Amino acid sequence: MRLSRTLRAVLPFIAVVVALALALSDWPLGWRVWRDHPYVAAFAAGIAVLFVAGAVVDAHFRRREARRWHGLGFVAAGEFAAIQYDTGVAMSALIGIDDGYRLRSDVEFHLAIARDRATELLPPDSETFFVERREVDDEFLTSRLAVLVTDEAWRRNCSQTLRVARGHLVEAVSRWTGTFAILNDDEQFNRVARTVTITDLVTALHMSLVAIGPSEERADADTMGFATFASQWRTLLNSVNTELDFWNARRRMHTRVEVPDTRRAARES
Q1: Less packed terminus of the chain by CB within 10 Å, N or C?
Q2: Distance (Å, whole) CA 104 – CA 115
Q3: Closest to 40 measured CA to CA, from 55, 20, 25
Q4: 222: how many CB neighbours lie within 10 A of its CB?
Q5: Cβ contact 167:141 at 8 Å
Q6: 10 Å Cβ neighbour count for 27?
Q7: What is the rounded CA–CA span in Å between residue 116 and residue 102?
């Protein structure tokens, strides 16, 4: 598939080179070879026309495919952006940063309990109130996680929330991988691979949470395990924010809806 895409990309250049080479090849020989060998000349001209026609037809079909699948690409960008946004919201809510935004019911089923436990263990203060979801510093995050991992109710519901979030990512990847392959959209196809990496990060974070242990004594003693868990949490959050920026940019780039100006419409009416 990669070789086919490469050939399609360089086909116009090959056509131009072949045409020029055939046009100039007779010059060193006094412009007599093609005239003295008409069959060979017709065969070579046919090859040149074939390359040029192939490049033109390929360009036409590529433009038609881009127009045909443009709407689906827009929808895919919107879905991935929504999933990454919801994942970021969930991770922030898990550490007690609640801006009132609520997610879909299957996520909220476990997230609500973990968020309430985080609020009980770490009551909101002025510092927490002004913290942005996308700008959580390492010290603030580590201090909150150190308290939360010692609570069994929070650990249990945090674990389930991560599993549900991973399921949403897996569903989206399964749905759109084939679409981007058909579109020959390498940029978005490779970005789906990055989304697969995020699912791996969620899995690793979940395994680290389980490995820390249920008891408060073990959570305090396993310093290395907690450090790994906190580091993976930061990595996942940064990756989610990066992907959110990418898919939001794709949505703006491929916007296909013209928002009407209601004020102008009212004046015209």
Answers
A1: C
A2: 15
A3: 25
A4: 16
A5: no
A6: 9
A7: 13
* Alpha helices, H only, the chain: 2-24, 33-36, 38-94, 105-121, 126-129, 138-148, 152-183, 186-212, 216-221, 223-253, 262-268
Locate tokens 């002004």: which residue? 130
49-78: b or e for each residue (b if 16 or more CB lie within 10 Å)?
eebbeebeebeeeeeeeeeebeeebbebbe
The model's pLDDT over 92-130, given as tens digits with 9 standing for 90+, comes to 899 988 888 899 899 999 999 999 999 999 887 655 555
- Write down the pTM of the prediction: 0.66
Contact 111, 103 (CB under 8 A): yes
- Tokens encoding 165: 């979030």
For 226, the token pair is 């907690």
Rounded distance, CA 208 to CA 200, Å? 12
